[in-house]
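quick q for whoever's on today - can somebody do inverse folding on this one?? i tried earlier but teh output was garbage lol. tokens:
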């Protein structure tokens, strides 16, 4: 059963390249170690990271969470062996989702020219 949906549209230029560099507070706060590692292997590291940001925003929306009250790095979006993105929740966000009966978050990420789009579904 679907418990929530969320979507996000991101203008890629809204996140500066400098914000995606090691040591930048945005980069360090936003991404998990596994996301950072996978980004290094991506064809376009910046677009990979920007799509994940849009994805995290969509996940917050489908969970009904306030980004100011939860840690965004508790959402991890990685690609599986075939390149399809999947979501793993960590920490308090995972506990809150489980308490609401959410067992899985499905996600789709896309980008075209200047925009990235993300769509997430929370389900039991």
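ok took a stab at it. sequence:
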């Amino acid at each position: 059963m679907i418990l929530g949906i969320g979507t996000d549209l991101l203008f890629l230029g809204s996140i500066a390249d400098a914000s995606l560099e090691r040591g930048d507070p945005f980069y360090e706060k936003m991404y998990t170690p596994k996301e950072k590692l996978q980004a290094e292997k991506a064809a376009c590291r910046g677009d990979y990271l920007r799509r994940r940001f849009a994805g995290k925003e969509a996940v917050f929306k489908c969970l009904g969470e306030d980004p100011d009250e939860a840690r965004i790095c508790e959402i991890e979006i990685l690609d599986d062996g075939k390149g399809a993105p999947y979501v793993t929740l960590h920490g308090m966000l995972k506990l809150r989702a489980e308490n609401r009966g959410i067992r899985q978050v499905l996600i789709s990420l896309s980008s075209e020219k200047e925009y990235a789009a993300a769509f997430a579904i929370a389900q039991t």
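fwiw The radius of gyration is 14 Å. also The chain has one domain: 2-123. so keep that in mind when u check it
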